[in-house]
Amino acid sequence: MNFAEPWWLLLLLVVAALAVGYWLMQRRRHRDVMRFTNLELLEKVVPRRPNWMRHVPTALVLVALVLLTVALAGPTAETKVPRNRATVLLAIDVSLSMQATDVTPSRLSAAQVAAKGFADRLTPGINLGLISFAGTAAVLVSPTVDREPVKRAIDGLKLAESTATGEAIFAALQSIDSFSHSLAGSADGPPPARIVLMSDGKQTLPGPDGENEPRGSFTAAHKAAESKIPISTISFGTSIGRIDLGGRSTPVPVDDDSLRKIAQITGGQFFTAASQEELQKVYESLGEQIGYEIRRVDASRPWLAAGAILVILGMGSALVLGRRLP
What we know:
Layout: E1 2-3, H1 11-34, H2 39-45, H3 56-72, E2 75-82, E3 86-93, H4 107-121, E4 126-133, E5 137-144, H5 147-155, H6 165-182, E6 193-199, H7 217-226, E7 231-236, E8 242-245, E9 248-251, H8 256-266, E10 270-273, H9 276-291, E11 292-298, H10 301-322
Parallel strand pairs: 3-4, 3-6, 6-7, 7-10
Antiparallel strand pairs: 1-2, 2-11, 4-5, 8-9
């Protein structure tokens, strides 16, 4: 716990002095009582009750003063609050390998269900856009807080040949830049942005070994890093996936290495998912990270409430036990 105005805590020294003063006063009072010569008369005048009870009102008031002093110092605490400003581009691989059935019922069908769940769980203030990519990349939905166009576009995803991962990243960066320019006149400026890229295989355009070419995935990742836009990548599928191409069974294993490197270059996170359930958990984790942020907020209210309650209890117990206020 931190404090906005910690100097108020110096008042705790005053509270401590009051406690010491009360203790000294009780010792002096005890000595004065023992000098009373007629002890039988004292027992008749002073009602018999447990000795500790007479200290209860003062103890409650002293503890209340401690709590109220802490409240004055402005305690703050970290808490998770929904983001009201952010841009997220979701890029989904729709290459032919996404028809593999190693993930039930197919990689694409499972990805569609999980992606729609991701859209639904994002906090309302997030602007979500959608990109599909195979041999080329297409911005299907520009960033918007309306989730329905995104979910309709996810339902309409169609398979195509090749995998141009670099083109997907460049398209996402361009969409983010266009959206940011549309908000250039706002007082808060453009919101922070992130790309979530889900793919099941290695880049094939401009070539499996062309990640560092001008339109390659690693080149695009470095561009995103320069723009301070992290890319969280999801490797979706298994190493035993196969599809039927021209009557031949063709292996389509996932490619963790390149997706992991894209995330590392940009400062994003790398995830793997081998089933629809695992993919949903990945999206849930991303939704928590993207949709919420940790802020330090005022935490004085509980201290104020507890202090006020103890003051009331202290005053009430003083009236009941001693028929006077402490």
